[in-house]
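Recall that a protein's primary structure is simply its ordered list of amino acids. Everything else, from secondary elements to tertiary packing, is in principle encoded there. The following example makes that idea concrete.
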Amino acid sequence: MTHEFILHTEGLSKTYGKQRAVDNLSLQIKAGTIYGLLGPNGAGKSTTLKMLTGLIRPSGGQIWVDGEPWQRRHLDSIGALIEAPALYGNLTAAENLTIHAKLRGLPNKAIHEVLETVGLQHTGKKRTSQFSLGMKQRLGVAIALLGTPKLIILDEPTNGLDPIGIQELRDLILSFPARGITVILSSHALTEVAQLVESIGIISEGQLKHQGPLRQDKDLETLFMDVVRGAKL
């Protein structure tokens, strides 16, 4: 049975002492789309993404994956690149992927498939310490793609990339829905986000202040500033 939302949350919250980092969040991510999760620094985006990937435990609320309450087994169908990828600089791209594949009990052919997907199949014996920042980010995406996830979560994937690296990563992300992969993308680069996403959620002060399709006639930067400033009034 397929569900309209590959992932949705109901009243998702995270409290640290008296501080409510995420407050009653109800996200709705449709299958086969690219969803932009936006917000200023300290809004609760990273905390939310870490809850979705099981890195931290929610204080309240519920996460649903494919219509089922979130369980650890769902991580088999969720790939994630949160912050910079953790790579072994003295190893090649294939060797880095081999370690992750073995940890997850995946066959070696999965390594060649994801290297091809991210365009790193010809890097051979080059160590990842010699990779450009863009190549390292693509290798991080390759690690997230191991095991053919249905959903991939990318947190600031274009951080520090030059225009060529950004273009390459943009083309890669745009190719995912056709491969059956839904994307949650968190980024401060609003111009870049506007070229990629179909729907957006804007978080401010831990709360979801706006959610819906990205209208082509509405400038995302203007919408973002209106929502965030309105939230602070």
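The mean pLDDT is 90. The chain has one domain: 5-229.
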